[in-house]
Design a protein that fits this description.
Growth Hormone, Chain: A
Length: 298
């Protein structure tokens, strides 16, 4: 993930170091997969990843949907405050306060699901509704948000994503244990933990790379001819109070902020993708009723 994050920002994509890190990452990943599959230097009971779960349809769909839900949640958590910092000039504290509607709705949606889903035992419709909200909210954040968008509109769009992310954020922790033998429950929880963590890591790594590279291109175009170095332009992406935004003319500053907002919006393409993938997974889930208990992440 470090390779993706620094690619294009610190090292060029065709730099030998970047290529070497991708190759090493691929080799290590393949080696780990082989080692876990054939239980080399370990046993099936003690291996880190329960490979056999990948042959179970429901568990695989839950894995993908959990990673997609984490993607929608954490991209919004990271980039909503960043939007308000650049577009509205909010301080760090105020930018975090702007996130409260999103957080509160996410928590409420998660609690709502946790109270009702185990009671009725049906899980497939929850994932359909969740994915639909995330998909619609992500599409609105990507296509309709700019520097002039009102705060109330941002709150409304973000709440749609919050409902989508919250409704199934913890669902798999109740469903997966109900789909395995009692002695495999810890493996099932660890399996879903891996999905959630990997979703967060991949989502923030990819969007950070997009933000750094696309944002730099927009800044370079907006501030061309003003004498700013590439290092100063990249530093400007770290905060609206940088030297670039203090010394640049107002017209150039406005163009630069608009470019950065476009780069932020590009991150929501991944939310749209996550919502679409999760919706497909939801439609492929079994229409079954399970006896399940309320679960929580480990």
């Amino acid at each position: 993930m470090l390779t993706v994050k620094i690619g294009g920002a610190q090292w060029a994509w065709d730099d030998g170091r970047t290529i070497a890190m991708f190759v090493v990452f691929g080799v290590v990943t393949i080696a780990f997969a082989v080692q876990q599959t054939f239980s080399i230097f370990t046993t099936e009971e003690h291996r880190l990843f329960p490979i056999d779960f990948l042959r179970r349809r429901t568990l695989v769909l839950l894995y993908i949907s959990t990673a997609a839900g984490a993607t929608s949640l954490f991209i919004s958590v990271y980039y909503i405050p960043l939007f308000f910092a650049f577009a509205k000039g909010d301080s760090g504290v105020m930018s975090a306060v702007r996130l409260l509607p999103f957080i509160c709705i996410t928590i409420f949606a998660s609690l709502f699901n946790g109270g009702l889903m185990p009671k009725f035992g049906v899980y497939m419709p929850w994932y359909v509704v969740s994915a639909s909200f995330a998909l619609i909210g992500g599409a609105l954040m990507y296509s309709l948000v700019d520097i002039s968008t009102s705060n109330s509109t941002i709150y409304g769009f973000s709440i749609l994503v919050a409902i989508g992310a919250g409704l199934t954020q913890q669902s798999a922790y109740s469903i997966a244990p109900a789909k395995v033998e009692p002695h495999r429950v810890p493996d099932a929880v660890g399996f879903i933990n891996t999905a959630q963590i990997s979703g967060i890591v991949f989502a923030l790594t990819i969007t950070s790379t997009v933000f750094q590279n696309i944002g730099f291109q927009h800044l370079r175009s907006a501030l061309a001819g003003l004498g700013f170095t590439p290092e100063e332009l990249r530093a400007a992406l770290a905060g609206a109070k940088s030297t670039v935004f203090i010394t640049a003319p107002d017209s150039a500053k406005l163009a630069a902020i608009e470019g950065i907002i476009k780069a932020i919006n590009d991150g929501y393409i991944l939310v749209i993708t996550a919502g679409a993938v999760s919706l497909v997974c939801a439609l492929l889930m079994k229409r079954e009723k399970l006896f399940m208990e309320a679960g929580a992440s480990g």
